[in-house]
Amino acid sequence: MPSGRASDRAYESLRDEILQWRLAPGTVLGEVEQAARLGVSRTPLREALSRLLADGLVEAQSGRGLVVSSADVSDVRGLFELRAALETAAAALAAERREASVFSALAAEFEGAALLVGRHELDAYYDLVTRFDEAIDASVANPALVGALRGVRTHLQRIRRLAQDDPARLERAAAEHRLIAEAIRDGDAELARHATAVHLHASLRHILEATASDTKESR
Q1: Planar angle of CA 214, 77, 159, nearest 5 degrees
Q2: In sequence order, what are the beta bridge partners of 61?
Q3: Residues 22 and 84 in one domain
Q4: How many structural domains comprise the chain?
Q5: What is the C-alpha to C-alpha distance for residues 180 and 175, in angstroms, rounded to an integer?
Q6: C-alpha angle 189-172-80 in degrees, rounded to nearest 5
């Protein structure tokens, strides 16, 4: 297997495990162990770890080598401020540059997303959200903006898992995403910007409330 392809596979596997908390913060990522576990040689594994280091998902720790980085909920407000600035701008640009049929189809999918949540098909729901983000990124056609967005989304995805999967919140989020998709479909940049801001505000409030509740219960 070519090094680049093996490196990509190792990167995607480790990234997914970190984002899904299957590799918890502080987990040591030893080269020999991880290379054997993932079925790659140490060279592509090092390349994958370098990318994860650049993403901020792993960090060097004295005496331990590379470990999975911490995910501190205290950072969430700052991350949401950054995401709101970037995401609202992206939604407005997407409304100006979009392919209407793409967002029409996504809006229709979000209309039925509550059924996915009700059937506990959360992987399918999150796949829909990912495809929606990717459609916005493709419409924006601005590599610098898209790169910045992907970075902040990655860190918030980890923190979002701390809030667990609340079906009621996911159903509301699906409706919020549908409104954004419809605004982009219709080329309404201001509505797309506003609807995105409302969605992110609701998401932040939910995460803060959920993590505060978990903190109280653990005392």
Answers
A1: 50
A2: 65
A3: no
A4: 2
A5: 9
A6: 60
Q: How far apart are CA 105 and CA 107, in angstroms?
A: 5
Statement to judge: residues 41 and 80 lie in one domain: no
Per-residue pLDDT of the chain (219 residues; tens, 9 = 90+): 444 689 999 999 999 999 888 898 999 999 999 999 999 999 999 999 999 999 889 999 888 899 999 877 777 889 899 999 999 999 999 999 999 999 999 999 999 999 999 999 988 999 999 999 999 999 999 999 999 999 898 888 887 776 667 889 999 999 999 999 999 999 999 999 999 999 999 999 998 888 776 545 544
Q: Within this chain, do residues 24 and 105 fall inside the same structural domain, yes or no?
A: no
- d(C-alpha 120, C-alpha 105), whole Å: 22
Distance in angstroms (rounded) separating the CA atoms of residues 166 and 202: 13
- Single pTM value for the model: 0.81
Residue 92: CB atoms within 10 Å: 21
If asked whether residues 89 and 192 sit together in one domain, one would say yes
Of 139, 148, 145, 132, nearest to 187 (Cα)?
A: 139
Domain enclosing residue 21, as ranges? 3-68
Among residues 29, 138, 113, 25, which one has the least CA distance to residue 72?
25
158: left (phi over 0), alpha (psi -120 to 50) or beta: alpha
Residue 175: how many other CB atoms lie within 10 Å: 13
Cβ proximity of 184 and 136 under 8 Å: yes
